[in-house]
Design goal:
Elements: H1 10-21, H2 24-36, H3 40-68, H4 72-79, H5 87-118, H6 129-138, H7 140-159, H8 163-189, H9 194-202, H10 211-225, H11 231-236, H12 245-273, H13 284-293, H14 299-330, H15 334-357, E1 366-367, E2 370-371, H16 372-399, H17 402-410, H18 416-442
Antiparallel strand pairs: 1-2
Helix pairs in contact: 1-8, 1-12, 1-14, 2-10, 2-12, 3-9, 3-10, 3-12, 3-16, 3-17, 3-18, 4-5, 5-7, 5-14, 5-15, 5-16, 6-13, 7-14, 7-15, 8-12, 8-14, 9-12, 10-16, 10-18, 12-13, 13-14, 14-15, 15-16, 16-18
Length: 446
């Protein structure tokens, strides 16, 4: 059955897809992963991976979804019937399930900070933000309760159908996020020792770079673009046939890189000015941001608005993760969709409880030396997403007809055919080879 729903415009699709990508990946995760993986050297690698591997893969997922007009699992079955290739879609669904289970924990933290900000409890002259963050994440009732509320918000929206809501809201929220980021950057850059942070972020220093940092850079490029999990297969299945896929992909990558750059410029100057370690980890955003806003006139108000927008960016990503699971199970049946959304969402919440407790009462429990939260993050970002990306890079050139690829890349654009050969070359050879080499290096074979 073909999709009956469609995005109302190309801008709506681009902002919705960017909203899926621009969430925790670019705003929360990028600064702390860059901080722990070498700063400028990491950013350069992230940039190269995003353009040379992430972009071709994103376009590959677009081609699968738009050409079949089907959600993830059925799309692979349509292209390669009577084969096992549909397991790529199933892998994507499973990955999104695990990803949303720990992603919702951070969404809960944002909700708690937004509540504190709205009630005037967040910004204060004597506030110790590192201790406040520790208090939030170690309290089992607060962290699990907030995670539940975040999942509940996601369920309510997805159960009603997300296209109309996401598309309309993104047209206002994403530009507002950019504007607030610029305000934050201007303030960060005027702090004492701010340029040390800019140097750390933008000047590559390869002396501290490890094979694990390279894997993190590649994983981050997949995480921040939502590739490798077939979310974009489902999203592009709602796209009209006359829209240009390459232009849409380049726009989404451009927005994503811009947000990552803005996040780095907002965070690292403040990190060095305030004497916080850039390797502070997942809490970096929750410790540094309030410290910066505390120094801005009307900082409490700005922080509350930013947290609200940050919550929205996080929710739009959560919608897309739940959407791929629900779309694969409900197959267009609206009544079944509602029931499936509630059951799936509540199951994800239950699976995510150990991650919510991993900084508090279950902090002693580790998996391969990592907390439950960090282990789930590592599994998704550095194993499942690259594996999914590798399989998609093999699938598109191997199983899809060349004339279908040409038609999809060329539709709505005069430049599509010109870039077709370059895209196919990067997808067929560079993407698989790069993914495999980094994997082999990390496990010690090369």
């Amino acid at each position: 059955m073909k999709q009956t729903e469609q995005w109302t415009s190309k801008l709506g699709f681009i902002l919705a897809a960017a909203g899926s990508a621009i969430g925790l990946g670019a705003i929360w995760k990028f600064p702390y992963v860059a901080g722990t993986s070498g700063g400028g050297a990491f950013f350069l690698l992230f940039l190269l991976f995003t353009v040379l591997i992430g972009l071709p893969l994103l376009l590959g997922e677009f081609v699968i979804g738009r050409s079949t007009q089907q959600e993830a699992i059925t799309a692979y079955k349509t292209v390669a019937p009577n084969s096992g290739w549909h397991w790529i879609g199933k892998l994507g669904v499973a990955t999104c399930f695990i990803l949303l289970s720990f992603y919702s924990v951070v969404g809960g933290w944002i909700l708690l900070y937004l509540f504190r900000s709205a009630t005037g409890q967040l910004i204060g002259e004597m506030q110790a933000y590192d201790k406040l963050f520790e208090q939030v994440i170690t309290d089992p009732v607060l962290s699990v309760g907030a995670q539940f509320v975040f999942i509940l918000l996601t369920i309510v929206v997805v159960a009603r159908g997300v296209q109309e809501g996401i598309e309309k809201a993104n047209k206002y929220m994403m530009p507002a996020l950019f504007v607030l980021f610029l305000v934050l950057i201007i303030r960060s850059l005027t702090l004492d020792d701010a340029m040390k942070g800019v140097t750390f972020f933008l000047q590559p220093d390869f002396s501290n770079l490890t094979s694990e940092s390279v894997l993190y850079a590649m994983g981050q490029s997949f995480f921040s673009l939502s590739v490798g999990v077939s979310v974009m297969v489902t999203y592009s299945s709602y796209l009209a046939k006359n829209e240009s896929l390459p232009r849409s992909a380049v726009s989404i990558v451009g927005l994503n890189l811009a947000i990552s750059l803005l996040a780095g410029l907002a965070i690292f100057p403040a990190v060095f000015s305030l004497g916080v370690e850039p390797t502070a980890g997942p809490g970096l955003l929750f410790i540094v941001l309030p410290s910066v806003f505390a120094k801005i006139p009307l900082g409490g108000l700005f922080l509350m608005v930013f947290l609200a927008l940050f919550l929205f960016a996080t929710l739009t990503s959560a919608f897309s993760m739940l959407e791929i699971i629900v779309a694969s199970l409900a197959r267009g049946d609206m009544e079944k969709r509602k029931k499936t959304t509630w059951i799936t969402g509540l199951l994800i919440f239950v699976v995510g409880i150990p991650s919510a407790l991993s900084y508090g009462v279950w902090s002693e429990m580790t998996i391969f030396g990592k907390s439950i939260f960090d282990a789930a993050d590592f599994l998704v970002s550095n194993i499942l997403m690259p594996l999914g990306a590798l399989l998609i890079a093999i699938f598109v050139p191997l199983k899809m007809k060349r004339e279908v690829l040409v038609a999809e890349i060329s539709a709505g654009s005069n430049n599509g055919k010109r870039w077709f050969a370059v895209w196919l070359l990067l997808l067929r050879y560079l993407a698989p080879v790069a993914i495999i080499i980094v994997f082999l290096d990390v496990i010690g074979i090369i």
